Amino acid sequence: MKSFLAIILASIFSIAFAQQKTTIIQTDQMQQAITRGAIIWDVRDEKSYLEGHIPGAINIGEVGSVLRDPNKEDYISTEQIQKLFDNAGLDVNRDVVVYGARGNPYTYFGLYTINYFGGKNAQVYHDGIDGWKQAGLLVQKERQTLAPVSVVLVAQPQLVVSNEQMLKMAQSKSVQIIDARTPDEFSGKDVRAIRGGHIPNSVNIPFEDNWQDPATAIKLSKKQVADNSGMALKNQTDLKRLYANLDPDKETVVYCQSGVRAAETAVVLKTLGFKKVKVYDSAWLGWGNNLKAPVADETFLNVGALNAKMAAMQNKINQLEDALKAKNN
Q1: Which tens digit of pLDDT belongs to each residue from 281-307?
Q2: Could you tell me whether strands 251-255 and 122-125 are parallel, antiparallel, or unpaired per DSSP bridges?
Q3: Cys-Cys with 207: which of 21, 39, 127, 261 at CB 3.0–4.6 Å?
Q4: Do residues 138 and 194 both lie within one domain?
Q5: Which domain CATH number covers 47?
Q6: In this structure, how many other beta carbons lie within 10 angstroms of the beta carbon of residue 17?
Q7: 123 DSSP 8-state letter
Q8: Containing structural domain, residue 58
Q9: How far is CA 307 from CA 122, 194, 285, in A?
């Protein structure tokens, strides 16, 4: 039987943890999560996971691929997801911490998935494996397994907005809508559905603006920076300034192309005190492909131009293959 002192200390620890618990955690908090026995979920692809992961972390593959239909980019069936989670020992009702690469919105999509299926104790480690390594902490290469579980996943539809609901909300002045896509997607220049443009009355705040340096991904591709440190989150003061024109008390809907980037912004908003935040899950794929839905800055997919670009690209591939054959001969 536990001593009275041990019970008191355990109660104090539990209360302190509950009071200090935040959705987006730092490296020291990740260490604390491991110590208290939280499930650590690495949402990266299997190859990256096996090259080095946070000790004790489990992996079911790249979350955007294994949990979503490749065409619709919607969830696969709940039964399929439940089987994946059960086999991996991923109990959504337990204390779970999700991580991937620093700033990767799929990490937040993993958190969103836990919440959508009823989990209430999930957190996200924004700096992920990059922050862990930069702190000089050890990584594990061996696959980690947990005992299988049997947990019934129950969808929480109140966390998302359907196409029908979005059509009504777009006409309501009591709802504020955030488009977390790029400026080119928002303006209709970058068309990623039948139509380009944006939902009327939405404001464009790209999810990368949550980062200390929103241009980090572009800089990395051009080799202008050595690492992804710029993808670290802005501090609370700068984040509040970013969303200063929005009302934390109003219902807020965030959308992007398929719901992934929106998930990151939605979590950030909640940490800033926004009380009624939802994700429009069908996102631009659902809206832009619905010809009855109104679109601001509307453009249409130019199939002829797209085919021409693909033909030109195939031409270049053929030329490169011919050049390689000539060189080998």
Answers
A1: 999 999 999 999 999 999 987 666 677
A2: unpaired
A3: 261
A4: no
A5: 3.40.250.10
A6: 13
A7: E
A8: 7-155
A9: 44, 15, 21
